């Protein structure tokens, strides 16, 4: 997408009172009623929606598409309980509740989610090198002002440009990090390809090299290793390599447990356990451990 087109999309979106895509997809959003007379024509609104749907894929959207969401009220309750792991015997005694959001949620009512006990959030910043979340500032800064420990994530498309190129784009568009006690390291969201071949046409070796390129470049730019978000099924099919000593694992599985983890990760740091009514997550540790992750 050209810079001019991306800027026009952002300008058009800022004029919308109700995030139209959120309404079309049934996403959870806090929005006021639409004005009697929209400043945009129907064609412009349709263009904005088509552009977002083509270029904005939320964290886990492709995992849900391929693997499904089997979460229930019981599994959601279980996911918020401590999940000890063999790698951390007797060390996981608490959890912290969180969410992740993207442009589909529009302007988020952070007070509402704080009141529901959520204490951390990751917000989508970028996808490939062609998309930036037009609601990023409200979501990223608004959550911070409410008291959340917040971070940003990047939806990767490994067939469009190098890992280094996408890491640099991410850092330059909201994915950086600062040791302020309230900012989490950035996340590499690597999952099923929404545009074509499951593994983006890459071999396991090439995919692993791409992830390492992103991983190393993000560290060089920020001083932090990125969190890696994925599902075990996708990782085992498409990627390899051992990132367990540097990259915290954010596992996606919408069921009664996080299940078997990808290669050599002995425990998960975050578990995305449902996509309903929006993506909800559990940090596998107490609040002071979440603060430690933030502080590096």
UniProtKB/TrEMBL annotation:
First and last residue of the signal peptide: 1-33
Region (Disordered): 57-86
Domain of life: Bacteria
Alphabetical keyword list: Glycosidase, Hydrolase, Signal
Keyword Transferase: no
Record family assignment: Belongs to the glycosyl hydrolase 25 family.
Family annotation (PANTHER family): LYSOZYME (PTHR34135)
The protein, known as: Lysozyme
Lineage: Bacteria, Bacillati, Actinomycetota, Actinomycetes, Pseudonocardiales
């Amino acid at each position: 997408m050209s810079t001019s087109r991306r800027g026009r999309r952002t300008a058009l979106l800022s004029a919308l009172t109700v995030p139209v895509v959120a309404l079309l997809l049934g996403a959870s959003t806090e929005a006021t009623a639409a004005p009697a007379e929209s400043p945009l024509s129907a064609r412009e609104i349709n263009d904005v929606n088509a552009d977002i749907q083509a270029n904005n894929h939320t964290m886990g959207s492709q995992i849900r598409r391929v693997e499904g969401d089997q979460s229930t009220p019981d599994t959601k309750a279980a996911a918020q309980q401590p999940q000890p792991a063999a790698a951390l015997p007797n060390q996981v005694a608490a959890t912290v509740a969180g969410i992740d959001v993207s442009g589909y949620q529009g302007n988020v009512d952070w007070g509402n989610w704080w009141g529901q006990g959520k204490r951390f959030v990751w917000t989508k910043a970028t996808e490939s090198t062609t998309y930036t979340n037009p609601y990023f500032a409200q979501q990223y800064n608004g959550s911070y002002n409410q008291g959340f420990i917040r971070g940003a994530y990047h939806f990767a498309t490994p067939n469009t440009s190098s890992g280094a190129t996408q890491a640099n784009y991410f850092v330059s568009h909201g994915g950086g990090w600062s040791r302020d006690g309230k900012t989490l390291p950035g996340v590499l969201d690597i999952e099923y390809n929404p545009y074509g071949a499951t593994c983006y046409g890459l071999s396991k070796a090439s995919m692993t090299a791409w992830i390492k390129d992103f991983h190393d470049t993000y560290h060089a730019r920020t001083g932090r290793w990125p969190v890696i978000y994925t599902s075990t099924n996708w990782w085992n099919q498409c990627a390899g390599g051992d990132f367990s000593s540097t990259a915290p694992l954010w596992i996606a599985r919408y069921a009664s447990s996080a299940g078997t983890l990808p290669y050599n990760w002995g425990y998960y740091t975050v578990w995305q356990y449902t996509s309903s009514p929006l993506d909800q997550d559990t940090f596998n540790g107490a609040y002071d451990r979440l603060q430690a992750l933030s502080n590096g």
